[in-house]
Amino acid sequence: MADYLPLFNPGTAVTFTASDDLIGGRLVEITGDRSVAHAAIGSGKVAGVAGFNTAAGELVTVYSGGVQLPTASGAIAAGDRVAAAADGKVSTAETGTIGVALAAAADGETAQVRFHLA
User: Fold this and answer.
1) What pLDDT digit, counting tens, does each position of 46-85 carry?
2) Fewer CB near the terminus (10 Å): N or C of the chain?
3) Phi, psi (5° rounding) for residue 15?
């Protein structure tokens, strides 16, 4: 068998092209070949969290796995399961979850989310 190296290592950042303007700290979803935009409510295509503000057409670093710090939409309690909310934020949910909150967060605050993206 030949030597093998993955394209990206688990837990490392992946670079995408922004298909729309992005705000750092918001969830992004895959919109095409290696491109992302803010995740829609309940999105099943979440790739991770944008690392910084990015204009459409520019490269953006996306972080996934482990514990990430997306922006909360509404109050979130420690232990709540969360999913994509409007504008790439996270909110409590029972279905389509992307992770679990490790600490409480108020609306607009940074949430501590242990990701379990598939």
Assistant:
1) 999 999 999 999 999 998 888 889 999 999 999 999 999 9
2) N
3) -95, 130
For residue 90, what are the contacts with CB-CB under 8 A and spacing of at least 6? 27, 70, 71, 72, 73, 76, 82, 83, 84, 98, 99, 111, 113
Average pLDDT, the chain: 90
Measure the CA–CA gap between 81 and 79, rounded to whole angstroms.
6
User: Any bridge partners for residue 115, and if so which?
Assistant: 99
Q: Centre a 10 Å sphere on the Cβ of residue 81 and count the other Cβ atoms it contains.
A: 17
Any residues with CB less than 8 A from the CB of 99 and at least 6 apart, and which? 68, 81, 82, 90, 113, 114, 115, 116, 117
Tokens read off for 57: 């057409």
88: phi then psi, degrees, rounded to nearest 5: 80, 15
Structure tokens, 84: 């994509």
One-letter identity of residue 50: A
